[in-house]
């Protein structure tokens, strides 16, 4: 082991991969040193294949990203560039390496979802920002509405009830095809990151209800952000930069964002902002039309 200190495998990855653009010089040095050390421990004879070095590279990137995630909590958006990746030299495909406890790993899939299925990002009961999925089903019935998956969260139940109550009052201005008297609605909430039940999900719940009622899926790779009152007043999003980072980590390509949060755009690094197609809305109805691409 002492003799191996004279040997370096920090360039072992270069034959097969190159590191993504989000790694700064310190990140690159740390990852390369970790790769070198792990190669010495696991393959001390220096013989390894592409799959072997890829496994070590992913572990090293995950470990370094975990350090950056902690720095981000201390230093804020100065350390926003945590979306580490590597590029295959043969296929040129880029792979992003998530940190399991931070979620990510393409929680929000590409392509169209089923009608009534909506992804959103909100602050959970634990105070952490997480990704949630709303699934809504519609059946013939008498206007009954049920919600599941919320446990004992009073705030979460109130947010979803606000969405349904708003739809009952304003359904005609959204679409004449929405029926709340001859159909039953069932909505289920999934906490994909395990950060606790959210409170500010009324807008996502309204979009999910309308998507299911009209049997029209939301646009592909969309995540919904925002909350509104029973009177339709749109509320500003807290911690916009950190919330958008969660969107990016989770795989969202498009973000439905309240216009009231435009004032906070100055707090978001341009590099992060450029990763999304931002769809601003001014009212709950406007959000529905843009999410479902309703003319």
The mean pLDDT is 87
Strand order of the largest sheet: 6-7-5-4-8-11-12
Strand fraction equals: 15-25%
N-to-C span: 69 Å
Q: In terms of per-residue confidence, which ranges show pLDDT below 50 for 5 or more consecutive residues?
A: none
Major sheet details? 7 strands, mixed
Please, how many helices? 7
Shape: elongated
Could you characterize the architecture of this molecule?
With 295 residues, the protein is of the alpha/beta class. The chain is built from seven helices and twelve strands. Strands 6-7-5-4-8-11-12 form a seven-stranded mixed beta sheet. α3 (154-174) crosses α4. The model has no long low-confidence stretch (mean pLDDT 87).
What would you say about this model in short?
This protein is α/β, with parallel strands linked by helices.
Notable traits:
12 strands; 295 residues; alpha/beta; three-stranded antiparallel beta sheet; seven-stranded mixed beta sheet
């Amino acid at each position: 082991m002492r003799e191996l200190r004279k040997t370096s495998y920090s360039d072992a990855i270069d034959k097969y991969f190159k590191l993504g653009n989000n790694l700064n010089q310190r990140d690159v040095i740390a990852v390369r040193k970790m790769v070198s050390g792990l190669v010495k421990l696991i393959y001390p004879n220096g013989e390894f294949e592409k799959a072997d070095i890829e496994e070590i590279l992913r572990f090293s990137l995950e470990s370094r990203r975990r350090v950056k995630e902690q720095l981000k909590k201390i230093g804020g958006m100065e350390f926003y560039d945590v979306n580490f990746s590597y590029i295959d030299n043969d296929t040129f495909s880029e792979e992003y390496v998530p940190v399991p406890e931070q979620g990510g790993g393409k929680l929000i899939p590409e392509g169209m979802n089923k009608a009534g299925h909506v992804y959103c990002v909100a602050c959970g009961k634990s105070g952490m920002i997480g990704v949630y999925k709303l699934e809504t089903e519609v059946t013939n019935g008498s206007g009954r509405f049920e919600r599941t998956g919320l446990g004992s969260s009073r705030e979460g139940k109130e947010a979803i009830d606000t969405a349904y109550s708003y739809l009952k009052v304003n359904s005609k201005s959204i679409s004449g095809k929405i029926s709340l008297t001859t159909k039953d609605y069932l909505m289920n909430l999934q906490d994909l990151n395990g950060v606790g039940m959210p409170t500010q999900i009324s807008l996502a719940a309204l979009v999910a209800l309308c998507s299911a009622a009209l049997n029209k899926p939301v646009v592909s790779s969309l995540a919904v952000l925002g909350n509104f009152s029973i009177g339709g007043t749109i509320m500003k999003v807290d911690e916009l930069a950190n919330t958008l980072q969660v969107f990016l980590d989770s795989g969202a390509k498009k973000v439905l964002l309240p216009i009231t949060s435009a004032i906070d755009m100055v707090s978001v690094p341009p590099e992060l902002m450029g990763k999304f197609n931002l769809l601003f809305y001014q009212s709950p109805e406007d959000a529905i039309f843009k999410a479902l691409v309703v003319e």
